[in-house]
Specification:
Elements (H helix, E strand, L loop, with lengths): L2 H29 L1 H5 L13 H7 L4 H4 L14 H8 L7 H11 L20 H6 L5 H4 L16 H9 L1 H4 L32 H19 L3 H28 L3 E2 L2 E2 L8 E3 L2 E4 L2 E6 L1
Antiparallel strand pairs: 1-2, 3-4, 4-5
Helix pairs in contact: 1-12, 5-6
Length: 287
């Protein structure tokens, strides 16, 4: 390799490459953060259910369908029998209600796609929070305005700690509320799956439900346009900036003279007959 090009590569190209790589990774990390945390996840459900209609317009209480919020760790997804309390009469001829009725008659659970999910090693109880007066909207957003439910909040450790530490500011609608616990075992405890009134759910059943929900989430997430766009933009940025660093910059910055690359080293001055000479030209300064 030409010595001049090697020196230029080590002094200019390599630092540019390192800078571009670090900058691209940093930008991609923050751009893709909502994707990693699930914000914007909005799966298509097997039966369209509008919270805007049921919880917003009709004012049906959340606990009517999610019966576990006051007494259990889990809010509980309603069974088909809960839906049929109304739909044995209401909109019986709708194609979706006919599909719902089929699930009910065959005693099969509706394969709802789980939207909000916490890791298995995190202990979270809906009953503790709801009985303290915390509204569903504080974590799940304005569900009463959603035709299709989506995740709008982060459920990371930092988000939970922020709410626990700043509860009086974040939950100002609850009078005299105190900050929540921040010690480790408050959330990272042995998962006994005990609900609030002492009942116990089978561990294997709960684990199976979570695994099924995880698989459904993984399959569905690949079809969310907003999340895919963020990933694509991040990788496109890496490719474009990398191409500029590798191809455009090195060859335009090297000047040429007589078809040969100019040496990157400074020209040395030599003394001839008491005068400083540079490339055959006399310099007025005496040596």
């Amino acid at each position: 390799m030409n010595r001049t090009l090697l020196e230029y590569t080590l002094r200019v190209r390599v630092p540019i490459l390192i800078f571009v790589a670090l900058a691209s990774l940093t930008v991609t990390y923050f751009v893709s953060r909502p994707t990693r945390e699930g914000i914007g996840y909005q799966p298509t459900q097997p039966i369209p259910f509008s919270h805007k209609l049921h919880a917003g317009l009709m004012k049906i209480d959340c606990a009517y369908c999610h019966i576990g919020v006051y007494r259990s760790r889990y809010a509980v997804i309603p069974a088909a029998s809960t839906c049929m309390n109304c739909h044995t009469i209401a909109k019986k001829t709708s194609p979706y209600i006919i599909k719902l009725t089929k699930y009910y008659d065959e005693a099969k659970p509706i394969p709802w796609k789980r939207v909000h999910r916490l890791p298995d090693y995190v202990y979270f109880s809906h009953s503790f929070h709801v009985n303290a007066g915390i509204k569903c909207q504080s974590c799940h957003g304005n569900v009463q305005d959603m035709n299709v439910v989506k995740q709008v909040s982060s459920f990371t450790m930092s988000a939970c700690l922020d709410c626990h530490k700043n509860a009086p500011q974040r939950l100002s609608y609850i009078p005299n509320i105190k900050p929540g616990p921040t010690y480790c075992v408050a959330c990272h405890r042995q998962s006994a799956t005990e609900n609030w009134n002492g009942g116990i759910m089978e561990k294997e059943e709960v684990r199976s439900q979570k695994q099924d929900a995880t698989r459904e989430d993984d399959r569905e997430s690949s079809s969310v346009p907003g999340l895919q766009r963020r990933k694509m933009l991040g990788w496109m940025g890496v490719g474009i900036v990398g191409a500029i660093a590798f191809k455009t910059l090195p060859f335009k910055l090297i000047s040429r003279r007589g078809g040969k690359r100019k040496s990157a080293k400074p020209d040395a001055r030599i003394a001839i007959n008491g005068m400083a000479v540079k490339r055959g030209k006399k310099v007025t300064k005496n040596v």
